Input
Amino acid sequence: MDATPEAASASPPASPLISPLTSPLTSPPLPHASSALLASLAPLLHAWLPRQRWFAGKGRPVTGFALVSATELLPLTGSPGLLHLLVRAQQPSASPQGPGAPPPADCYQLFLGVRRSLPPALAPALIGRVQEGLLAGYTVYEGLADPKLAGLLLERLRVPGTLGSLRFDKAPDALPPAGLTARPLDAEQSNSSLVYGNSYILKIFRRIHPGANPDLELPLALTHERCVRVPAPVAWFEGANPEDLFEPFTLGLLQPFLDGAQDGWQRALDSLSVGWEFAPEARELGQVVAEVHTALAAALPTLTLGRPQVAVVADRMTESLETAAQAVPALLPYAPGLRSAFDAVRKLGGAGPVVTAQRIHGDLHLGQTLHGRDGEWSVIDFEGEPAKPITERRHPQPVLRDVAGMLRSFDYAARMSRPWNPEWADRCRAAFCEGYAAASGTDPRELPVLLRAYETDKAVYEVLYEARHRPSWLPVPMAAVRRLANFPSTEAR
Output
């Protein structure tokens, strides 16, 4: 959980490497950006939006839409046209709201292709045919699936400037080649990605929050510190926030595509399937993560956590446990043992400052790493947990949260092996910590109380996630829960 000391409860200042929208954009608004445009599209969006992998409000009906912005990237009178929308989807709250409180409304980024008729090759991208209103008679589809429209987006990124409420920017001296063929990245994720010519990858954020997205902010800061372990941002685009021009929406990020690289999760599974030792690579990975942490501490503010701040960390972990136990009754027998890990953290603060908090990855696991053809590891996807507000994701936290996430990932991989291979996980966990200590000068195992608490908190989160989304995987984190709660088990550990 986040360390949010009372003295620094506001989120840290934005990286100076990201310049805010300091004045209103002067481009004229889209003439169709009105309730009439939204009314024309709403029947299609009602049916299509909740089916998308990245839609966060599944299980709750969409009661309405509100238009935040609309920009014609290609005129709608052309064939095709391309419409960029930021739309708030209004839904009943999953938790009780105060009297008079407006319903929750997550903001989503949409790229809508518009044609009179859809070519057969784009049939899977169909959203629907508009029946009435401004776009009556037109066919609307997922624009990112159209190579022509995806190519246009790259051209916009090659030339910095503004268009409507959008602003395009790029790193100094960066200029991707024109005409690269675009293809969607076929992977299950909470955003959308386009690969251009196997040279660049564009991540398009779907659920939008005000303020600098850490997936742009942190790689820019790491590039400034000359850290080569993270692909450097090449170009990006933002949208004006009508409620606060100093907190724009981060909409997309272009980075080098590491063609031929293998993600750490698959590489670990391959090692288990063929029986080759992964501990040396885990050690290298520990060194890489430590290098990233060291660079982030140099680039962005850090905090020292004392007793009140550590108590906040423990309280939030305890609250998460209680919430998860209510939702997943299988946790209840282990709750006292798990809670003891958080109680031990509260006692740490009695002797004064406990640990340093800094910017971290925030959602680190093997799937957030890449092993390149050159044999080097890279760390990717600094967005943090997408379900949390960006302000919360940008708080400094102890690096042990990232370490615990990786240790849990080794356990997950070992559980995928048949038979289960706990010794493989033990060797990888130890090697990772050894590599981290070699690069940082601090062995995570020297802070066992905090490390146990963060690993316990992560396992509780995993139980809740698996119960909701992948029930067949629930035994994986439950095995860790038994171990971390010091509960007798018939298994090896």
Summary: Confidence is low (pLDDT under 50) at residues 1-33.
